[in-house]
Amino acid sequence: MELRSAFRVNGFVVLLGWLALTLLFGAAAALAFVSFSQHDGGPAVLVGAIAATAVVVALALAATGLIIVNPNEAKVVTFFGRYIGSVSAPGFFSVVPLSDRKSISLRVRNFETQKLKVNDADGNPVEIAAVVVYKVVDSFKAAFAVDDYEEYVETQSEAAVRHLATTHPYDAHDDERTSLRDGAEVAEELTVELRERTLTAGIEVIEARITHLAYAPEIAQAMLVRQQAAQVVAARTHIVEGAVSMVGLALDQLTAAGTVELDEERKATMVSNLLVVLCSDRAVQPVVNTGSLYS
Question: DSSP letters along 7-53, please?
Fold first, then answer.
């Protein structure tokens, strides 16, 4: 069964009908009273009683079908256990009398999952949480496909976050893997997975994004040292690459200008001194050599 629009009429039209029936009821009651007074009973009394009863029953039945639908809300209408449609247009309406109506909010909602402790793809325990933004797009599925669509979304969100954490490392040390710290890619993957998981409940996931990501307390300090070491190595590698390029440039320019002629040993000495100066992590003390390398 799929979502469909329920039969409805304007509620104010029904109110006008109420007014007309009330006037008819009043006229019938007055006629019955006059007839009873003049003729002490008779057919007019019976007609008046039947009309009054019919009007009361009609008014009572019509009252059970009146509904008010607020903006961004849907009313799911069932008649003795049978789904007859939904009303999502805001306004005052009258639907099938004696029907049951369930309100479903179509507003955009968001919630944040609990901080979950899971092992990432490398087996490291991490703490992770995410915020999920969603809304109901199919009121029939939200009402009847699952017991509680809000609880269903929360449970599926936690399951999706756990699955995401176990399939990606906290921090990738190469370019071939996506880490949990790659915000845009991970958010898109989480959103796609949640859309597939919540489709059964008539839910559209607008966005899902990680809001908390950290190593578990028992390994946080060790991982911090590891990250610092990795950053130092990366920085040193970049410095050495730049220093080698600068040394080569200096030798090429000295040779091209003919400023000084250097043999291989003097070039090696110059390269060693320049690398020490460029790669050192602290200020170096210059040494003036007034002699010769061969003396």
Answer: P-EEHHHHHHHHHHHHHHHHHHHHHHHHHHHHHSS-HHHHHHHHHHH
